[in-house]
Amino acid sequence: MRAFVFPGQGSQAVGMGKALREASQTARDVFGEVDEALNQNLSRLMLEGPADALTLTENAQPAIMAVSLAVVRVLEKDAGVSLADKAAYVAGHSLGEYSALAAAGAFEIAETARLLKLRGQAMQAAVPVGEGAMAALLGLDLADAQAVAAEAAGEQVCTAANDNAPGQVVVSGHKAAVERAIEIAKARGAKRALLLPVSAPFHCPLMQPAADKMAEALAQAAIKAPFVPVVANVTAAPVSAPEDIRRLLVEQVTGAVRWRESVEEMVRLGVDTFVECGAGKVLSGLVKRINRDVTALSIETPEDVEAFLKTL
Predict the structure, then answer these.
(1) What is the four-CA torsion angle of 203, 209, 214, 219, rounded to 10 degrees?
(2) Residue 275 predicted with pLDDT over 90
(3) In the Cβ-directed half-sphere of 104, how many Cα atoms lie within 13 Å?
(4) pTM, 2 dp
(5) Does 199 score more than 90 pLDDT?
(6) Which of 195-204, 228-237, 255-264 is predicted with the least confidence, judged by mean pLDDT?
(7) How far is CA 157 from CA 76, 152, 154, 287, in A?
(8) Do residues 223 and 179 touch, judged by C-beta distance below 8 A?
(9) CA of 257: how far to CAs of 48, 160, 161, in Å?
(10) Which end of the chain has fewer surrounding CB within 10 Å, N or C?
């Protein structure tokens, strides 16, 4: 049983999607669709950079989605692989949840691009630059990381934002509180604790202004029931009803990404193969850290597509 999974922020890189674009008109059509929806030549930015502009949250989010959906469309249109037939579940990490929903037919690609552009702008604007931070605490489990965050918070905000894999938890909040968390984590035996190169403190209560903006946008968005259940970040459980999807996407802005639990739940439900669609191999690596017994594949290039087809 397969799950198709979709990467989040941090997977962007100049040149992303280049090989697929060169090999497939279907992929070029997806990139063109995203450019048109945003009234922006995002494709050129993805191909040529500069890297600092691509890394901006408002650009990185739709760019990562575009590569993921190009992979999905190439599989479906060029290779004749139907996600409805081949996937039991879909899931994505943070913004990747939007990619997963689009892949499963809940959103149109153009709508997804516009929502992610707005999401990126809203998340960046929610906290003044320099006031927030995120840090990876490596070697602590979720309960320990939550205890560290609670101790570090004081009168400020510091919470567990991403439970990525055993021993890999990210905390988010006010910069001073996150810096305190790093020191407390080291004292409690973390193997490493380090600030992440991000522009805002994602997935914590400081993102409430962005959640409010997304609530307004999602209230107007057309959401269909996905043809494959989506395992939601904030519940680590499958969801299919459009109103539930709408609510959970709003909660996701301030809520923790429960990736470890999401993968564990899909395994419990019978998934033994995870197929990462899009830029990089971050999720494939996390999946193998969560459960060594499952198969984890990644598809970004035409060669990856060919290799995947041989597994069917």
Answers:
(1) 130
(2) yes
(3) 32
(4) 0.97
(5) no
(6) 195-204
(7) 44, 9, 8, 29
(8) no
(9) 31, 9, 6
(10) C
Residue with tokens 């939550």, as numbered in its chain: 146
Chain centroid to CA 269: 21
N residues, the chain: 312
- Would you name the residues annotated as active-site residues? 94, 203
Q: Are strands 2-6 and 273-277 parallel, antiparallel or unpaired?
A: parallel
Q: Look up residue 60 and give its two tokens.
A: 């990185």
85-103: pLDDT as tens digits = 999 999 999 999 999 999 9
CA dihedral 297, 299, 305, 307 (to 10 degrees): -30
| Residues contacting 92, CB < 8 A, separation 6+ | 5, 6, 7, 8, 68, 98, 99, 100, 101, 233
Query: In one letter, which amino acid is 42?
Result: L
Please report the domains of the chain, with CATH numbers, ordered by start residue: 2-126+206-309 (3.40.366.10), 132-198 (3.30.70.250)
Q: Using CA atoms, how far apart are residues 217 and 120, in angstroms rounded to an integer?
A: 13
List, in sequence order, the alpha helices (H) in the chain.
Answer: 18-23, 25-38, 42-48, 51-55, 57-73, 83-86, 96-103, 109-126, 142-153, 175-187, 208-220, 242-254, 259-268, 282-290, 302-309
